[in-house]
């Protein structure tokens, strides 16, 4: 016998499964968290949620010290060891370990930018980028240097800054011995090899590699 839902086309092999399914229509939430306002219709979901309060992480990686609260999260983590990337882009050769990462990548093809700033016209494809952008309005700088008083809005900028203390220069030129702490500095350096001069004067034929040189040129000859 098949137990059919009167509200949709679903069918179930037991009445218990049908009753549980009916809760999705009634929106009745049987399980209420006693620590916060969270509620749900399944005991298994409540069990997982409670781990956010207890800190329990029963799923452990056998390759490293990583552990987590949800089995699906461990499956995703294991791919960082195996190199498996089952989610593939239909537009290019890109592949990823999670479906959510692939969805973000696809936006580079569609141009979709669903995350919008409510202070200005800025929009972006990643929620984390919007969070970073909002700090330009709030002035928040949560990342602090442990060596000096420097602070900044993004973790990436902090890592770049820390290289001023360690003298680390991971970005290396393939044409000469030049190396630097910032990828932007390397891109600018490479212009010396390619001969490209992206900054062009709107008043004459002058062009240059550095924006600072263009500023000086404009002040000297066209101001």
TrEMBL record:
Belongs to the snail C2H2-type zinc-finger protein family. Pfam families: zf-C2H2 (PF00096), zf-C2H2_16 (PF23611), zf-H2C2_5 (PF13909). It is found in: Nucleus. Keywords: DNA-binding, Metal-binding, Nucleus, Repeat, Transcription, Transcription regulation, Zinc, Zinc-finger. It comes from Panstrongylus megistus. This is Putative zn finger protein. One of its GO terms (biological process) is positive regulation of DNA-templated transcription. GO terms for molecular function: DNA-binding transcription factor activity, RNA polymerase II-specific; RNA polymerase II cis-regulatory region sequence-specific DNA binding; zinc ion binding.
């Amino acid at each position: 016998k098949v137990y059919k839902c009167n509200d949709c086309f679903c069918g179930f092999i037991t009445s218990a499964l049908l009753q549980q399914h009916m809760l999705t229509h009634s929106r009745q939430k049987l399980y209420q968290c006693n620590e916060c306002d969270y509620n749900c219709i399944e005991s298994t979901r409540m069990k997982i949620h409670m781990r956010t309060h207890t800190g329990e992480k029963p799923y452990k990686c056998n390759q490293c010290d990583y552990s987590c609260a949800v089995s699906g999260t461990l499956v995703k983590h294991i791919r960082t060891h195996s190199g498996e990337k089952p989610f593939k882009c239909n537009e290019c050769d890109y592949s990823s370990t999670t479906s959510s990462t692939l969805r973000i990548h696809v936006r580079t093809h569609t141009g979709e930018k669903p995350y919008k700033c409510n202070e200005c016209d800025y929009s972006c494809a990643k929620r984390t980028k919007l969070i970073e952008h909002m700090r330009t309005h709030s002035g928040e700088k949560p990342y602090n240097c442990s060596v000096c008083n420097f602070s900044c809005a993004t973790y990436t900028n902090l890592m770049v800054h820390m290289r001023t203390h360690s003298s680390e220069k991971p970005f290396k030129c393939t044409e000469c011995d030049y190396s630097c702490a910032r990828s932007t500095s390397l891109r600018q350096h490479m212009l010396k090899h390619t001969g490209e001069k992206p900054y062009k004067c709107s008043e004459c034929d002058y062009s240059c590699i550095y924006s600072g040189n263009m500023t000086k040129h404009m002040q000297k000859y066209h101001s």
